[in-house]
Design the sequence.
């Protein structure tokens, strides 16, 4: 399936030297998607998120500290991006019939323009996320920085192309992100412990566990098997050790963070909705 947003020829030509230097052969065909999306996320973060939030929830937003406002704006961008990228990824997975016919070799070295498009918008977002995390460590912490760096590495290696097939599958990690952002907003809107937050929390835990832990682990195992098969291939296109190590290390980092964050989310939800024992005893007496 072709990229529905074809690249201008002049941009493809100008991006060739950078692509050759980085050994990212398909990058020139998607530079027109990476750079504008990166700029769009900056624009949303700096201008759209604070202005719209100040109009929709003026009292809540104005009462936030400067640090929390920065975090709020990032959550707005994350919410918008996750809804868009999930829709794009699911459409391409469903409509790109070429992906359905790929064997182990094609899943490692194969490429389709539509898959590259989705990875381009993801790369633009994670490039923005990396900049935001690095410049706001006091807000987001080192875990968010490691996540952004690893996710960006996975996206960029897809332009080699390498594991372009799996890169799109891993985009579906973001299925849980809208619920995560909604949960965070509910805390700030004084809806902590409400029935609405409980329902959203159940949806969050379910989608996070299914998309990141079950689906993500299954896809990681399949990817490791395909890389190992390609690594042992005599002749043809064996996988360079450094490339396999870089991709596996990035993917493993993301997987470990997912399990760590899942534990934190479960504890946070239990803390919000589990009533203290002494409080329950008082109501029974």
Sequence:
């Amino acid at each position: 399936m072709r990229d529905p947003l074809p690249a201008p020829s002049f941009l493809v030509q100008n991006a060739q030297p950078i692509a050759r230097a980085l050994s990212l052969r398909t990058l020139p065909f998607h530079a027109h998607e990476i750079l504008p999306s990166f700029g769009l996320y900056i624009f949303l973060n700096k201008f759209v998120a604070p202005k719209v939030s100040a109009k929709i929830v003026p009292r809540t937003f104005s009462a936030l500290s400067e640090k929390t406002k920065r975090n709020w704006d990032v959550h707005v961008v994350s919410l918008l991006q996750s809804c868009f990228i999930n829709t794009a990824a699911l459409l391409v997975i469903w409509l790109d019939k070429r992906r359905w016919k790929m064997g182990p070799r094609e899943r490692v070295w194969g490429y389709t323009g539509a898959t590259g498009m989705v990875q381009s918008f993801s790369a633009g977002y994670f490039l923005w996320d990396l900049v935001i995390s690095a410049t706001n460590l006091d807000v987001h912490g080192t875990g968010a920085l490691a996540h952004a760096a690893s996710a960006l590495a996975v996206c960029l290696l897809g332009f080699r192309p390498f594991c372009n097939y799996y890169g799109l599958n891993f985009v579906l990690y973001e299925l849980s992100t809208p619920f995560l952002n909604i949960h965070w907003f509910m805390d700030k809107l004084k809806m902590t412990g409400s029935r609405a937050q409980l329902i959203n929390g159940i949806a969050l835990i379910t989608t996070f566990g299914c998309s990141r832990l079950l689906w993500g682990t299954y896809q990681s195992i399949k990817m490791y098997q395909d890389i190992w098969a390609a690594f042992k291939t005599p002749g043809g296109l064996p996988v360079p050790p450094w490339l396999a190590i870089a991709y596996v290390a990035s993917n493993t980092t993301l997987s470990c963070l997912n399990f760590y964050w899942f534990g934190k989310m479960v504890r946070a939800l239990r803390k919000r909705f589990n009533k203290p024992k002494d409080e329950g005893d008082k109501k029974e007496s």
Remarks:
- The CA atoms of residues 49 and 73 lie 5 Å apart.
